[in-house]
């Protein structure tokens, strides 16, 4: 365990949005060092989707920092709470998830989370292991410790109440269940995004009711997406997936606005604190070309998610495609059977370059589709497979398919 209290506090607090309460945290950390007893640091994840993006890794990176300092990371898979769904930021009741889908999502979630966390130092537990055992009288006892007025202090509930939008009583149970997770494991610290503040504070309150030392609530900022405007979101298309190919991640990082860089460095990498100061100074004084710092950022992120070698290969791929405007060597092939003419839109969809006919049409209209470097201008174009044999079909600047006629 790191024995310097000051260093521990500097690392823990760096990049956070809020620490509730920092004085209590310092005392907990000091006692932890003195007694050589690691803190129990909790992060709850509801597997409501099969994959995660870099926005989700902000709290995972903070949890990894706690691990590196010598503390115990407890990752709670909300297989039970996911059945209700977290109402945070929701304007209506979340649809119920099938238990089988939750289990499948949890498997891929963990695989991706372990790209950031040290599996050997992570305790993973499903909250169904204690929530499922609660009797109705236990639930009644828990609900009696909170008032409706307290629940309506929460922003999303408050807005829905004022707007006469229905709030299911079941939704009130979610923050209570999450709070009980903290009681079940006797959490010292709980991590979450800024939208989790209410839930984290509920955990503190319930621990007091159970005569436990109240956990420290640490919230992390919401990561801005690659567009530099909205929060990172798959629905907005401004995300970088954890499981995306290294060259795709590199290209997306290189496309972010320069003013996002320091935030990405602080939230998505684990450098020494002095390094962040140097980077920030270089950006403000313009001592270093931002492109150089962006390249370093891309390689650091890819190295954490994959390997250093794959990060270097991704950089080479970027230089080949963008700087030299050449076609990469290793391109996925797509075969088309010989016969009549084939619609260009169908080729784009079937080859996996796009997901739908509509997307293909839009990209062609935008001039983002090329065949051997020549722009495709007509979305109604039909081509003979023999004409395409050996040619390179390109979408945007980073996506290629080599066509084979058979």
Structural write-up:
The chain is of the alpha/beta class and 406 residues long. The protein folds into 3 domains: 5-220, HUPs (Rossmann fold), CATH 3.40.50.620; 246-323, Tyrosyl-Transfer RNA Synthetase (Orthogonal Bundle); 333-405, RNA-binding S4 domain (Structural Genomics Hypothetical 15.5 Kd Protein In mrcA-pckA Intergenic Region, Chain A), CATH 3.10.290. Helix content is 47%, strand content 13%. It is built from 18 helices and 13 strands. The chain has helices at 5-13, 22-35, 54-68, 99-113, 128-131, 136-143, 148-151, 155-162, 169-185, 197-209, 246-254, 261-268, 273-285, 290-305, 308-323, 344-350, 357-365, 385-388; strands at residues 18-20, 40-45, 72-77, 122-126, 189-193, 216-220, 333-336, 342-343, 369-371, 374-375, 382-383, 392-395, 399-405. Strands 1-6-5-2-3-4 form a 6-stranded mixed beta sheet, with helices on both faces. Helix 11 packs across helix 15 and helix 12 (261-268) runs parallel beside helix 14. The radius of gyration is 25 Å and the shape is globular. The N and C termini lie far apart (62 Å). The mean pLDDT is 89.
């Amino acid at each position: 365990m790191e024995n310097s209290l000051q260093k521990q506090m500097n690392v823990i607090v760096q990049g956070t949005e809020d620490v509730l309460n920092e004085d209590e945290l310092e005392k907990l950390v000091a006692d932890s060092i003195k007694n050589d007893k690691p803190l129990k640091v909790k992060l709850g994840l509801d597997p409501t989707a099969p994959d995660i993006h870099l926005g989700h890794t902000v709290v995972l990176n903070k949890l990894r920092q706690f691990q590196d300092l010598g503390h115990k990371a407890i990752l709670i898979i909300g297989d039970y709470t996911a059945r209700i769904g977290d109402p945070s930021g929701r304007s209506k009741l979340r649809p119920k998830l099938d238990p089988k889908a939750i289990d499948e999502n949890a498997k891929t979630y963990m695989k991706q989370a372990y790209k950031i966390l040290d599996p050997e130092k992570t305790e993973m537990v499903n909250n169904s292991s204690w929530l499922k055992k609660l009797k109705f009288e236990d639930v009644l006892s828990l609900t009696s410790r909170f008032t409706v007025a307290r629940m309506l202090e929460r922003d999303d509930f408050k807005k829905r109440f004022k707007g006469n939008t229905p709030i299911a009583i079941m939704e009130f149970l979610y923050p209570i269940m999450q709070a009980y997770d903290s009681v079940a494991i006797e959490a010292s610290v709980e991590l979450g995004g800024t939208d989790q503040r209410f839930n984290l504070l509920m955990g503190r309150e319930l621990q007091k009711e159970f005569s436990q030392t109240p956990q420290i609530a640490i919230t992390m900022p919401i990561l801005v997406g690659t567009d530099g405007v909205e929060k990172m979101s798959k629905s907005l298309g401004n995300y970088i997936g954890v499981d995306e190919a290294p060259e795709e991640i590199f290209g997306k990082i290189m496309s972010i606005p320069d003013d996002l860089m320091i935030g990405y460095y602080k939230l998505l990498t684990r450098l020494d604190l002095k390094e962040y100061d140097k980077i920030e100074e270089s950006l403000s004084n313009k001592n270093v070309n931002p492109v150089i710092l962006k390249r370093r950022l891309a390689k650091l992120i890819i190295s954490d998610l994959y390997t250093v070698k794959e990060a270097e290969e991704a950089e080479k791929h970027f230089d080949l495609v963008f700087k030299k405007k050449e076609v990469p060597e290793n391109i996925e092939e797509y075969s088309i059977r010989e016969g009549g003419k084939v619609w260009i839109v169908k080729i784009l969809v079937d080859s996996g370059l796009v997901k739908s006919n509509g997307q293909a049409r839009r990209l062609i209209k935008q001039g983002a589709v090329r065949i051997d470097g020549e722009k495709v201008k007509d979305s109604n174009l039909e081509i003979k497979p023999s004409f395409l044999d050996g040619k390179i079909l390109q979408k945007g600047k980073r996506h290629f398919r080599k066509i084979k006629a058979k």
